[in-house]
Batch of 2 targets.
Target 1
Amino acid sequence: MDFAVLVDCNSFYASCERVFNPSLNNKPVAVLSNNDGCVIACTKEAKKIGIKMGTPFFKCKKLMEENNGKFFSSNYTLYGDLSNRVMDVLVSYPAEHEIYSIDEAFLLFNNETIKSIFAIGRDIRYSVKRLTGVPVSVGIASTKTLAKIANHIAKKSKNGVYVFCSQKQVNKVMKITPVSEVWGIGRQYSKKLQKNNIYTAEDLCKMPDTWIRKLMTNRGLQTVWELRGYPCVPTTSDRVEKKGINTSRSFSHLVTDKHELYEALAYYTTLNAEKLRKQNSCTQMVCVYLSTNHFRDGPQYRAAHTISLPTATAETPLLIRAAYEAMDKIFKSGYSYKKTGCLFLGLIPEISNSNNLFFKTYYKSAEQNMMKVMDKVNEKYGRDTLRYASTGIKRSWTMNRKLLSPAYTTSWKHIKNVEFSEK
DNA sequence: TCTGGGGTCCTAGGACCC
DNA sequence: TCTGGGGTCCTAGGACCC
């Protein structure tokens, strides 16, 4: 039989914090979003005391303190590195691999028996934990959507592995799975379905295809077919290049000064351009947006503007200039701004951009070599070793990360000290 | 005081073409 | 009274995911 195996790290960000800090084991741990805004990951101990995903930090700070738990700012350097290690273990298995997100991956196995696939699931769980320190759960079924459901069950089970062994077993689970818990069915669709008296995965499967397609488009129909046991969600791991590249951050405080705003924008554009060059693309459009804080009373304003470039490029200075031009179109003084961002659209491969007679091609330019040097230096010696003056020196707008843990695995300065004492 | 960020896919409808 | 039909391309907006 063929099987879809979903490996999902347990409360990944929080587990990463535990890997190098075992004193956190069995205690509530939660990780916060940028600017220490709200909870984006929490361990089961944290859930137990009533901490929920998405809750603002200031609303649950006290609860955590009372229960001897700990919060962390998000440390993407650490999580990214541990994610790579987990994925390295997973791709060593003889299967088709699809790395789906920072903390989960599908492995597709052919010609296995229930017994052999169960053994593989247990081995995966054991190996990942031993080699990386990260706990994972494994859900196994005939389709990815069912594997997701299996994974939910595995998360709650003792040995962390769950296999759908028979159609009878699938039916039993579908009866008690709320439709809102099905992968691919979010809040809006759940509401619509409930209005039509569809509450469980089983209810949904019984509906006719035409009706499902009308309500939830072809994607929704795909989901239902997967629930019925026919694999039809395609593998996406061969898609490497992104279609759009975006960088935006909320500020640590409200920004009214035009100079500060432009400085932040230049910085986000620089980060965007680095991502662009990393995938060997050029961009044809630069879109800039900004907004005030919609959680607050007071005058609100949000706007966006897109500039089409005369020739596609990946040169940071040109992109900063375009971003400024876009910002000039939308900036209004008198407002307190919370956020700005920069989005590149219409990405094309670097090499194909050589057919414009009127401009020097990006591909051959000396500027490109300079970009390469900058990227290399910054990669080796750390971000911002070489930087543009327009991105600011003091950067008073940068986000708050007051509870940041060390970058244990990627910086010599932060490496963990272990002391032995003789007894 | 304090409420994240970065993606994907699909569809309807308008503009335009012959 | 009567006003074609069949395409393509683009964009905005809505849904989803982690």
Note: Residues 378 and 385 of chain A are 6 Å apart (CA to CA).
Target 2
Amino acid sequence: MSSPLPPLAAIRVFDAAARHASFTKAAEELGMTQAAVSYQIKLLEERIGAPLFLRRPRQVSLTEVGQQMAPAVADALNLLRDAYATARGGAQGILTVSTLLTFASNWLAQHLGSFHLAHPTLAVRLDTSNHLVDFTREEVDVAIRSGGGEWPGMAVHKLFDADFTPMLSPGLAASIGGVHEPADLLRLPILDPGDPWWREWFSRAGQPVDWLAERPGSSMGAQAYEARAAMAGQGVAIVTRALFSAEIAEGRLIQPFDIVGNDGNAYWLVYPEGRRNVAKIRVFRDWLLAEVEASLGNTGPRAA
Amino acid sequence: MSSPLPPLAAIRVFDAAARHASFTKAAEELGMTQAAVSYQIKLLEERIGAPLFLRRPRQVSLTEVGQQMAPAVADALNLLRDAYATARGGAQGILTVSTLLTFASNWLAQHLGSFHLAHPTLAVRLDTSNHLVDFTREEVDVAIRSGGGEWPGMAVHKLFDADFTPMLSPGLAASIGGVHEPADLLRLPILDPGDPWWREWFSRAGQPVDWLAERPGSSMGAQAYEARAAMAGQGVAIVTRALFSAEIAEGRLIQPFDIVGNDGNAYWLVYPEGRRNVAKIRVFRDWLLAEVEASLGNTGPRAA
DNA sequence: ATGATGAATCAATCTACCTTATGCATGATA
DNA sequence: TATCATGCATAAGGTAGATTGATTCATCAT
């Protein structure tokens, strides 16, 4: 069914030589020596079994066979050039980000607008799920992960520590005359008191913790819902501070104390080591790090 | 204007891998190892900046980028395959033979018919001229030359020695009661007595030569005309014996003596060393040598 | 004549590619 | 559940083939 392919390196050389009608010029274009061009052409001619060029005094010219072959070769190579270019460019058109649900809804969603402004040609596709993506088997460019920052073969950039701290609405705080010390919180409804984060935080704050229910595993994924309840004034939530800097800035939530708990995790930008220099990844990384920096900077720790 | 070409070796591998959706199968098709395929794909992916395959458990599958690229690559490679195939085949369609005028008209013309019968798909184009073709600057596949058989870089096959000997028509011979010894010729008109071949031949035949006009250079190129005159009974011609074996066989000429002159030349089939194994050249060479052998064999030296 | 240009050739070098060997993950099988 | 089979990735190493640099040769221009 399929005839053999010609030696492709020689084909590339032939194309250049045919276009220039000169081995020397072709060598220049290809960044090699005239000798190498001569060698490759000879090779191709031997494979074909017929000369491709007539060696005239001051220039070479195509034989009939060469004339017949040159346009087809040019077409084929142009096809390849196009396909290659679009593959490289096409890859730049869409950036797929695998993010944690909490990060997507509480941070990325609000900030992506500025990214689009800065890079209007690059569409961002969010892939929101909490499972650990495997870059080798899913079409994902970068991921936001929380954890210790140790993933072999991955390039990682820390976005912020997963510090958690109580949050509540200004209205709720006012209802008891303001929240001035940790003990004040005990007079308010605690949202999801089973979350181990509470235990950790209250002990850091020097408060008794024995009254708290004990339940393994934090409710991480549900932070958005708790925060919503807190903003509605239904109680005090304990959430990752950095994820709600916008709400604090807007006055919808207050962080009454600097005291934070931390279970050793942080949020990270992660992508395969080998793709460090891919344009769209570089662009996103630079933007994200700068944006995170800014969003942490302009909300002082105590915004109450 | 022109974007860069992708690494072509990798492209060839990609095409196979995409078609098979398997690196292992691709490796088989290409006659290399799975490791080599893996290497080339990885190389291409790095150049493109995006994965081309998703590595699923028991098989690989194309990413979006890969899916987009595969058909274009397939098209391009098919173009190349076609161009290559026609270049190889097209070269086989026509065989250009540069021949000496005398050989073309006195030998080739009569024998080419059998070549066409044996190889109906191969058209022979005769390029009849007496100048020494330069294979590097003219589109010629093989040449018939006369000379010493020493041409550097050329493959040569001797067809026959350029023995020359007198020839005349049977009628003319009969007009003097038959030609039995060299001296008998002196009673007949000698065609072109200035040809040095006569001098050489008569001296070999033990006859005086001082009566012959002296002129440098033989009339080689005019042998066909002299032979025609001889056949018409106008005199005795001295010509290259082997070129007229057909006329002897047909009884239109007779070669009265075995005695031949020879100036050291022979007729040769010549072609560039490097093209020894080109199919059409091999075919022509084999046919020509066999045909010459036969044409010399079935005309005994003395056909009078 | 003389020099300039462009290709062929040769020997020496180098490097990109391939192979071998191995490891790893996943499905299939018992 | 343990074992086996399959398929890809990776590392190390060797080699063929490509490339270079120097030279030659032929031709054309001055």
Note: Residues 164-249 of chain B form a domain with the D-Maltodextrin-Binding Protein; domain 2 fold (CATH 3.40.190.10).
